[in-house]
Amino acid sequence: MPSSSTTAKAPVKSVLNESKQIERAAMLIQMGARMQVLESETTLSYERLIRLYKEIAGKSPSKGQLPFSTDWFLTWQENIHSSLFLNIYEYLSKGVDLDAVELLTKAYRLYNEQVATAEIEPLLSFTRAWRLVKFVDAGMLTRTQCSQCSGQFVTELYENRHFTCGLCNPPARAGKSKSAGALMLH
Question: How would DSSP label each residue in 3-49?
Fold first, then answer.
């Protein structure tokens, strides 16, 4: 008879755990998460996720890869939105005991509330917010303090110490758009 120390135990299937994973996946789908996010943040099989996605969203999930470039987060308006989200995320991470997905969803909901209050169209999708957190965790992006307003903005890792944000020093054509929901500078 083999000793208990050499016998590997198969993971116990738990109906309760599976229920929690389905609930988590459903919440992520409702927030607009793409399949890669669902696969990364749940333990459900790809086939179960596809069926769940179709049931909740009423359509098949979007095809294609997620963006793997940090550039999107560094352009003018996108950087302001990304910085707002990341500041909310970092603030919550210091004061609330939540797992990573709960933290991400709470921060994203607060981001959406803030842009709605300002009557600005949200530019940051849930999947991009998830990717932003992954980029920060991987050390590809960070937050840097603006030398003029002292706000924290998403930047590349080795931004110089005299960084000026896009609000204090906007590009020449910034804020000139007439499109509804765009940032307007006065």
Answer: -TTTPPPPPPP-HHHHHHHHHHHHHHHHTT--HHHHHHH----HHHH
List helix spans (H) across the chain: 15-30, 35-41, 46-57, 76-95, 100-117, 126-137
Q: Distance between CA atoms of 28 and 31, rounded to whole angstroms?
A: 5
Residue 154 pairs in a beta bridge with 143
Question: What gap in Å lies between CA 113 and CA 119, rounded to an integer?
Answer: 10
Per residue in 55-95, pLDDT (tens digit) is 999 999 988 777 678 999 999 999 999 999 999 999 999 98
What token pair was written down for 138? 């991987």
Residues whose CB falls within 8 Å of the CB of residue 127, separated by 6 or more in sequence, listed in order: 32, 33, 34, 36, 37, 66
| Mean pLDDT estimate for the chain | 87
Name 13's Cβ contacts closer than 8 Å, sequence gap at least 6.
Answer: none
* C-alpha 6, offset from chain centre: 42
Query: Residue 107 corresponds to which amino acid?
Result: A
d(CA 146, CA 157): 14
pTM over 0.90: no
